[in-house]
Amino acid sequence: MASAPASAPTASRPSPSAPWPAPKNTADLSAVFCYYILMLEKIRFGSQIEKKFLEDLEFLIEFNRFLEKFSKEILEIRHYNLVGEGQAAKVFDLSQSWNGRPLCVKIFHKFLTEISLLEYKRRQSASPKEEFFIQDKLFNEGFPVPEPFYMDTEDSQPYIVMEKIMGYDLRQINERGGLIKEPLWSDLERLVIKMNNKHKIVHRDLHPGNIILQTDGKMDWEMKGKLYVIDFGTSRRTFSDNPSEEDFKLTVGDNVIKYPMDHSNIGTLRPRVGGNNVFLS
After folding, report:
1. SS in 3 state form for 200-235?
2. pLDDT at residue 151 tops 80
3. What are the pLDDT digits (tens) for 225-257?
4. Can you spell out the DSSP letters for the chain?
5. Burial class for 94, CB neighbours closer than 10 Å (0-12, 13-18, 19+)
6. To the nearest whole percent, how much of the chain has pLDDT over 90?
7. Is 50 exceeded by the pLDDT of residue 215?
8. What backbone torsions phi and psi does residue 93 show, to the nearest 5 degrees?
9. pTM score
10. C-alpha span between 262 and 269 (Å, rounded)
11. So what's the pLDDT on residue 29?
């Protein structure tokens, strides 16, 4: 089994202040190379940069070790801690393996490489790489999505390591009779408008299972938390401030796939007398 690459992560830029344990050995070749760079920078700018540079360096070395360890354990991970499964991938919880840090991994199904392009696009219109960069773009722009840390391919299966949002998705809350006091339904509407118009991303699969209420509380009648959007496998970037129906279509050969508009997908959650009363107001 090949190990994850020894270079730094290819896309996201994790913060050096993240709670990883301090490395016990910095004899990596990357550390030696960076040490000489540090010496040159000290000559140019003085010693005040040394502490910050070494903090960044230690974090990157430890993050590389995290990826190597994950790569070695990916086969075992597939057999436990399953937290969700969709048409394109399974999601596994990594929190217990990483000292309680809330992490998960999305591993894409192997059979995606064996089906027709049309069937593939019905399940996963964005490639795993495109999905990663859409989610990374939204996170870096301050939109509430799980932070994506890394993506790669292991044993012919792409995977994305990301933050795990602790809480309940809106489908679970609806099915178990929970009610959300805060935020409001209008906050969810504004969130979708912000994603579509400001960030120019259309989700195209924004059903209640892809919206999570982050909360450390139990399921009850007055739940409070923060809303997060997940799973950008069918998403795409747009160039309009007000996406049209055409932005929710995909043409593959002579076939047209029509995705539901984001507002239509969440319309069932609008507060009303009767079922699906997820929001109190």
Report:
1. CEECCCCCHHHEEEECCCCCCCCEECEEEECCCCCC
2. yes
3. 999 999 999 999 998 888 999 999 999 999 999
4. -PPPPSSPPSS----TTS-PPPPS----HHHHHHHHHHHHHHHHH-GGGHHHHHHHHHHHHHHHHHHHHHHHHHHHHTTS-EEEE-SSEEEEE-GGGGTT--EEEEEE-GGGGTS-HHHHHHH-SS-HHHHHHHHHHHHHTT-S-PPEEEEEEETTEEEEEEEPPPEEEHHHHHHTT--EEES-HHHHHHHHHIIIIIS-EE-S---GGGEEEE-SS-SSSSEE-EEEE---TT-EE-S-SS--GGGGEEEETTEEEEPPPHHHHHGGGS--SSS---B--
5. buried
6. 42
7. yes
8. -80, 130
9. 0.73
10. 12
11. 43
Alpha-carbon distance of 205 to 19, in angstroms, equals 33
Distance CA 176, CA 250 (A): 35
State the pLDDT at residue 20. Answer: 35
Whether the predicted pLDDT of 3 surpasses 60? no
Q: Does residue 190 surpass a pLDDT of 70? A: yes
d(CA 52, CA 1): 35
Matching residue, tokens 């360890």: 69
280: tokens are 């109190």
Span 54-79, pLDDT tens digits: 666 666 676 666 666 656 655 566 55
Tokens representing residue 227 in the block = 């809303």
Checking if the pLDDT of 158 tops 70, the result is yes
- Cα–Cα nearest to 23, from 52, 51, 64: 64
Nearest-angstrom CA–CA distance, 235 and 201: 7
